Amino acid sequence: MRTIKIFLFFFICISTILALIIFFLFASTKERGGDKIISPIINSVAKSSKEVLSIFTTGIDKRIIESLSKSQGIYSVVVIDLKSNQTYSLNPDRTYESASLYKLWVMAATYQAISAGRLKRTDVLKDSIENLNKSFSIASEEAELSTGSIEMTVEEALEKMIIVSDNYSALLLTKKIGLQNINSFLKTESLAHSKTSLPPVTTASDIALFYLKLYKHMIVDSKSSSEMIDLLKKQAINDRIPKYLPSDISVAHKTGELDSVKHDAGIIFTPNGDYILVMLSDTDNSTMAAEGMALLSKEIYLEFTSSH
Predict the structure, then answer these.
(1) Please, are residues 194 and 179 in contact by the beta-carbon 8 Å criterion?
(2) Is the pLDDT score of 30 beyond 90?
(3) Is the pLDDT of residue 307 over 90?
(4) Ramachandran quadrant class, 261 (left: phi over 0; alpha: psi -120 to 50; beta: rest)
(5) How far apart are CA 70 and CA 264, in angstroms?
(6) What CA–CA distance (Å, rounded) separates 173 from 153?
(7) How many CA atoms lie within 13 A of 21 on its CB side?
């Protein structure tokens, strides 16, 4: 009888210990799995502060890491599968000088003004180069132009600013709509890491969030979002994301480059589903960075299309 009691005592102890081990293992697995759940996708992109976050079940993370290992400099990458809402991000919240990516915000704030009736596409914008340089604290040795004046309609300024990344078109629009309205746009859209400072700064997560909302027709309104996407599809600087993609693939994107930074970000439309790709970099070799981004874009496209 005593032997049976001892056996039961040890059996109960061992069962209790095993139950506790299973419980903690399950809780730990659930917690780790929670890191990988993205719902809703907009909040996850906006709030992600992880150094590396990958929930792709394909080899896309391997392709990105292998591709970037051959490049010099610091990179941030965000990929969003717009069909499944799966996301990959590398250094999503590292801050970079935005270079010409700030023109995305100027474009959106301009469409806001048009939608609200404060501005017309046919309104003529005019100012002297000297005034524009002074208004935006552009030193004479850094200015592209120093004399003369510039005049164009709002619609013409939007097209030149986005399609060929013309700087003075952006300055004309910014001066017209006001920095306060651009800052208001950034705040309203939760682009918390992007600032219209001198120089403007941003993060890959903010740019990805902008494009995600644009794709979902949540920037200004559906009509404006659609028009902005069409405008971005006309981008003339195509040495990065689209360079090695098939010619029939449509890309709505915006590049940025200034000193050591080289960026490209946009929406890639494919027959198998669309995705967002954001690539920001800080490198001493901008030519190599551009080529590296083009090759990385090709790798992501191949992985994306092969897994769908």
Answers:
(1) no
(2) no
(3) no
(4) beta
(5) 18
(6) 10
(7) 6
Alpha-carbon distance of 103 to 118, in angstroms, equals 19
**Mode of pairing for the β-strands spanning 87-90 and 124-128:** unpaired
C-alpha Rg value of the chain to the nearest Å: 24
Q: Which two tokens stand for residue 114?
A: 């048009």
98 SS3 class: coil
Task: Give the HSE-up count for residue 69: Cα atoms under 13 Å, Cβ half-sphere.
Answer: 6
Residue keyed to tokens 């981008």: 235
pLDDT tens sequence across 234-254: 999 999 999 999 999 999 999
Residue in this structure with the two tokens 């589903």, named with its chain if needed: 273
- Cross-strand pairs, 178: none
Return the structure tokens found at 51: 């150094």
Q: Which helix (H) or strand (E) holds 267?
A: strand 261-269
Residue 293 CA, chain-centre distance (Å), reads 14
* Cα angle: 266, vertex 297, 227; to 5 degrees: 20
- Unique residue bearing structure tokens 């270079």: 99
| 3-class state of residue 185 by DSSP | helix
Q: How far apart are CA 294 and CA 251, in angstroms?
A: 13
Q: Exposed, middle or buried: residue 108 (CB in 10 Å: 0-12, 13-18, 19+)?
A: buried
75-134 confidence digits (pLDDT tens): 999 999 999 989 999 999 999 999 999 999 999 999 999 999 999 999 999 999 999 999
Tell the burial category of 73 from Cβ atoms under 10 Å away from its Cβ (0-12, 13-18, 19+).
Answer: middle
- Domains, the chain, ordered by start: 41-306 (3.40.710.10)
Could you tell me the pTM of the whole model? 0.81
Residues 6+ apart with CB under 8 A from 133: 140, 143, 145, 146
d(CA 36, CA 220): 30
Nearest Cα residue to 115 out of 175, 181, 172, 163: 181
**112 in Cβ contact with 227 (< 8 Å):** no
Cα–Cα distance between 268 and 252 in angstroms, integer?
A: 7
